[in-house]
Amino acid sequence: MSESGMSDKAVLSCRNLGKSYEEGPESVVVLSGLQLELHPGERVAIVGSSGSGKSTLLNLLGGLDTPTEGSVWLAGEELSALNEKARGLLRNRSLGFVYQFHHLLPEFTALENVCMPLLIGKTAIPEARERATALLERVGLKHRLAHKPSELSGGERQRVAIARALVNRPGLVMLDEPTGNLDSHTAQGIQDLMLELSTSSRTAFLVVTHDMALARQMDRVWRLEQGQLVEA
Prior knowledge:
Elements: E1 12-23, E2 26-38, E3 43-47, H1 54-61, E4 69-74, E5 77-78, H2 84-94, E6 95-98, H3 110-120, H4 125-138, H5 154-166, E7 172-176, H6 184-201, E8 204-208, H7 212-215, E9 220-225, E10 228-231
Parallel strand pairs: 3-8, 3-9, 6-7, 7-8
Antiparallel strand pairs: 1-2, 1-4, 4-5, 9-10
Helix pairs in contact: 3-4, 3-5, 5-6
């Protein structure tokens, strides 16, 4: 274990992670004492009922929310020790997000959407376009580069979102219900793509899902119950 609190090969680690909210005179505990570690290429699913705190946990691990207690380490950096700008730069460099709703920018093409994280990170436009094009081809969208989200199917939009999450070559991609709005055939295609990418690029995937078929394809499955992670 390094001084950072992460093992030397971990891409993400949390220690004694907790989150509570004040509601009037009472404190409502959502998460308490969570321990989790992910390594390169590892695939982990977190399942649980609605309202169990899965999205809260994902926001804490991604540095989008601040824990009440404990710490989160991403790529060797403790998130709470960084200011907002530094956290944003670290997320851009080391972390990709995919949501149930793709959150693509409707006025931009598939290629422009995938270029966006690279341009934010100051990558030159020609290199950004080259890398984004290669990744869109890899996810089977070579013929859709110039199409806007409204011109794409649900599965195609989710593939663009996955390409956008991977374009900066992050060590970790977090996915929040990535197949929640897809039919079973399209969902299986997205699952197969995720599994192939985790093997070929050594990207770690952390998936929050109600889809047990997807969860069972991960290396480990954790269930979030009463604010605690229990190995399923």
